[in-house]
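Pilot study result, target chain (210 residues):
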Amino acid sequence: MKATIVQAGNEDMLRRAVEVLRGGGLIAFPTDTVYGVAALPWDVDAVARLYVAKQRPKNLPIPLLLSSIDQLSRVAALAPEFAPLAERFWPGGLTLVLPKTKVVPDVVSSGPTVAVRVPDLLLARDLIRQAGGVLAVTSANVSGRPSPVTAKEVKEHLSERIDLIVDGGPCRGGVPSSLLDCTVSPPVLLRRGAISEEILRSVVGLIKTS
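Predicted structure:
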């Protein structure tokens, strides 16, 4: 069964997307960087299905996208020394790896940490907010293939593996978020992306590279 495609301008879009998520389904939608595919993080079966749909290795945790920085304390702990990063770059293309709280299921991240971000796209934040403020989201592609920046590319990758695709047009960023491990000091840049290493250093100082 192929995924249903809905346009972002459709007044019914948010309701339908949330219904799919609450029913244990998977949805894809645009962010400020690339299209993501999402499940409710508290739904263990849905997150397990997300791994299968992407053919994602089980040892790779699923990042969490937040509707706002106010949701952060629910799922992760941010040390004061790294708070300026969230204040400066959220919403935006920076994902932080942080110590996770007890509410984050092991199926999302089996280790002690979790990756979190607030996307800089109102559509994405509205959808996440309507779904409860936190979603488990990773790029809407089969693992190892290029990250999609259009709904058409999502369809080519995952149409028969997910339930709903929100077509919001091409992603304006097109580059995955930068990934910074803030569980150590100095932090470690695990993936170069939307925010340059130089700009990150201007806020937090010394950064190591992996």
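One observation from the pilot: The domain at 4-209 is CATH 3.90.870.10 (DHBP synthase). A full batch analysis is planned for the follow-on phase.
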